[in-house]
Amino acid sequence: MTETKYDSAARETPLLREARTVWRERSLIGYLVGRNVRDRYSNSVLGVGWSVLNPMLEMAVFWVIFSQRFAPEDVPYIVYLVLGIVLLALFRDTVNGVATTLRNNREIVGKLHVPIEVLAAAAAGAVLVNFALTMLPVTAIILLSGTAISATAPLVVVPVALVVLTAVGIGLALAPFAVTFPDVTELTRIGLLLLGYLSAVFYPLSIVPDRFRELLDWNPLYAAIATFRSMVYEGSIGTIEHLGLLAVVAVAAMAGGVLVYGRHVRAAIAMLG
Asked: Burial level of 95, CB count in 10 A (0-12/13-18/19+)?
């Protein structure tokens, strides 16, 4: 009688397999994160300072235009605004970075056979480094505005992690199509711009008509930004509904992204030649 052997690797889900690869190659990912950050600013005068300057300039424009009209009642408008902008930038840059991973690393993919999930993790890691650097002036702005940073502020790692996981999942799903259909990249940028406008980044929830507020509550990016703000200056963890929505969307995005990526990546790599 033939003995039946249980092969745990064969029954491993794609999501767990990708996670295992990322953990195994964590040293390589750390090296690639450093390389990505250095290469992005290697020829600029300000260097990595651009990672801080970009969101600060965006904040300044919105503050000049909307500070008198959209100021919330419970916190200085500049604090409300900058927290929304930095989290939106984290989501937007992670999606764009992961979505263009195959196209931007065609030589590595074709010749060195580095796992794509490693390159995706490195792209997301570089964005996280920029986010961490940006939080330094953001913290200064909050304190200079006279706003106290709440004891719950360290818990922002939770919405930040869920936002990054969601963005990585979306980016993975888009990565093969960014190679086979180049217009996907520009369409993604437009979609992210519109999503930002629908996430109460620069306007308070109070100006949104009641009939549209429920739609806003179902926007996971708005849920992340609202939770982020609550943890930083309101002294709360936000709402359970928002945290639950973020967790569900993050898991679904990662699972769906890995699935779509796995089905279409071979065709994309073949086009890279």
From this structure: buried
Contact by Cβ (8 Å): 148, 72: no
Residue 81 contacts residue 61 (beta carbons within 8 Å): no
Q: Could you tell me the sign of the dihedral formed by the alpha carbons of 205, 208, 211, 217, in that order?
A: negative
- CA 223, 227, 229, 230 torsion: positive or negative? positive
What would the two tokens of residue 60 be? 């300044």
Overall size of the chain counted in residues: 273
DSSP 8-state assignment for residue 150: P
The pTM of this model reads: 0.87
Query: Nearest-CA neighbor of 184 among 170, 196, 195?
Result: 170
How buried is residue 230: exposed, middle or buried, by Cβ count under 10 Å (0-12/13-18/19+)?
buried
Q: Please say whether the dihedral angle defined by the alpha carbons of residues 218, 222, 225 and 229, taken in this order, is positive or negative.
A: negative
pLDDT digits (tens, 9 = 90+) for 151-206: 999 999 999 999 999 999 999 999 999 998 889 999 999 999 999 989 999 998 88
Q: Which 3 state secondary structure label does DSSP give 268?
A: helix
Q: Give the whole-angstrom CA distance, residue 237 versus residue 72.
A: 19
CA distances from 175 to 17, 42, 97, 167, 244 (A): 18, 25, 9, 12, 27
